[in-house]
């Protein structure tokens, strides 16, 4: 592949210098700078559902982007009609943010103040649900119109596990730029043992949650500062206050952290929730990009909704039982996805596109088969 200039943006096969636009970007600096030096076509398309200003801006800085995807444009029009208040009306609701913040405070007290194995295990459960949701929605700019609010939510929500910019590169940049493609770091990190025999993987399963959280947390320091890469995506040390965040994280845990046993307890309970719930709608589908002429149709083919009628799984899976809709509209709040799911399902039916919506039993069964056999299975 042709080497990309680290100071340019690559969208729809064209190269743009958007440096002068960065201070004016409505979504803040981190959002637009995260696309610098890489192909950010998917990010460009999915984060601008409310109007066409982004296409006009791009034209002002270089070649006009190609005509928009008709399938996606029609779907966006339906979503706009369903949410006439636009982006601000789809942010996280204040009462939800307040409730999550209170739970986060309990988590921090249990982990850094009480500091017992049991309290840290409970903190891990809160981290796997509440902390993950604050981090995830903050990283996707779903919480507030103010960039600093989203950035603080991302940083603090992830703090007991690791530096949040590791999550940002792994998930927002890698996963949403190349959704569910084989080799993507956000859907491949638990398949490191695919070469092992099934019986050995079954024996290793109880220890998997600890390994996963370590990979997503402390090891991110190595990925961010030493390797400076997540899969095919480079780390830009200039973006997001990387050095400051890593310093604060190391010092915070060095001076305030509990015992190693407490860390292991937190890792295990956190991973017990995060591992299956983050992977279940991701790692079981690997469509061939050449079979989908539409960008949006490819997004729909790359993941599935599961247990969409269950409030239990909605909360345990940190609001992400509607993965199809999340990949189409990552900047829209989780609480809006149920309405968007119904719109998307009807839209797919109209155009003869398969919209995957399966039970929790089927989804987790497919995930287990993926882990044991090393091969994805059909969930149709």
Secondary structure blueprint with pairings:
Elements: E1 9-11, E2 14-16, H1 29-33, H2 41-46, H3 53-60, H4 70-82, H5 94-114, H6 117-139, H7 147-157, H8 164-177, H9 185-188, H10 198-204, H11 208-216, H12 219-227, E3 229-230, E4 233-234, H13 242-256, H14 260-279, H15 295-301, E5 305-306, H16 311-316, H17 323-328, H18 337-351, E6 357-358, H19 360-373
Parallel strand pairs: 5-6
Antiparallel strand pairs: 1-2, 3-4
Helix pairs in contact: 4-18, 5-6, 6-7, 6-14, 11-14
Short note summarizing the structure:
The protein is mainly α and 380 residues long. It has helices at 29-33, 41-46, 53-60, 70-82, 94-114, 117-139, 147-157, 164-177, 185-188, 198-204, 208-216, 219-227, 242-256, 260-279, 295-301, 311-316, 323-328, 337-351, 360-373, and strands spanning 9-11, 14-16, 229-230, 233-234, 305-306, 357-358.
Give the overall average pLDDT: 90
Strand numbers in spatial order across the main sheet: 1-2
Which radius of gyration do the C-alpha atoms yield? 20 Å
* Biggest sheet layout: 2 strands, antiparallel
Q: Give the beta-strand count.
A: 6
The sequence of SSEs as H and E is: EEHHHHHHHHHHHHEEHHHEHHHEH
Low-pLDDT runs of 5+ residues are none
Total discrete domains:
3
Helix vs. strand class: mainly alpha
Fraction in beta strands: under 5%
The geometry reads as globular
| Number of helices, counting only DSSP H or I runs of 4 residues or more | 19
């Amino acid at each position: 592949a042709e080497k990309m200039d680290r100071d340019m943006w690559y969208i729809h096969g064209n190269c743009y210098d958007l440096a002068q636009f960065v201070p004016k970007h409505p979504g803040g600096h981190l959002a637009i700078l995260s696309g610098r030096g890489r192909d950010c076509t998917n990010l460009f398309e999915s984060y601008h559902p409310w109007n066409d200003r982004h296409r006009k801006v791009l034209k002002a800085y270089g070649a006009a982007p190609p005509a928009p995807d008709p399938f996606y444009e029609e779907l966006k029009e339906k979503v706009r009609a369903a949410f006439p208040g636009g982006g601000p009306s789809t942010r996280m609701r204040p009462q939800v943010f307040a409730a999550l913040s209170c739970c986060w405070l309990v988590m921090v007290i249990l982990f850094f103040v009480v500091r017992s194995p049991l309290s840290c295990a409970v903190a891990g459960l809160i981290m796997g649900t509440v902390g993950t949701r604050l981090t995830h929605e903050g990283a996707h700019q779903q919480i507030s119109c103010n960039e600093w609010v989203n950035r603080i939510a991302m940083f603090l929500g992830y703090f007991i596990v690791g530096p949040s910019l590791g999550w940002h590169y792994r998930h927002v940049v890698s996963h949403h730029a190349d959704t569910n493609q084989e080799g993507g770091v956000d859907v491949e990190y638990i398949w490191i043992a695919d070469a092992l025999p099934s019986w050995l993987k079954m024996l290793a399963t109880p220890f998997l949650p600890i390994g996963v959280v370590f990979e997503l947390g402390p090891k991110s320091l190595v990925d961010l500062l030493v390797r400076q890469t997540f899969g095919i995506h480079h780390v830009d040390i200039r973006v997001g206050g990387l050095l400051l965040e890593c310093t604060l994280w190391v010092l915070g845990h060095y001076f305030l952290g509990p015992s190693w046993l407490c860390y292991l307890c937190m890792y295990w309970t956190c991973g017990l929730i995060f591992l299956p719930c983050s992977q279940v709608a991701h790692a079981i589908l690997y469509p061939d990009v050449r079979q989908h002429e539409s960008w949006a149709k490819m997004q729909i083919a790359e993941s599935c909704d599961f247990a969409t009628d269950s409030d239990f799984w909605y909360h345990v899976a940190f609001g992400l039982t509607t993965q199809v809709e999340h990949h189409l509209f990552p900047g829209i709040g989780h609480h809006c996805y149920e309405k968007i799911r119904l719109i998307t399902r009807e839209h797919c039916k109209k155009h003869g596109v398969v919209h995957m919506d399966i039970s929790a039993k089927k989804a987790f069964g497919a995930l287990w088969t993926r882990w044991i056999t090393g091969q994805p299975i059909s969930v149709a």
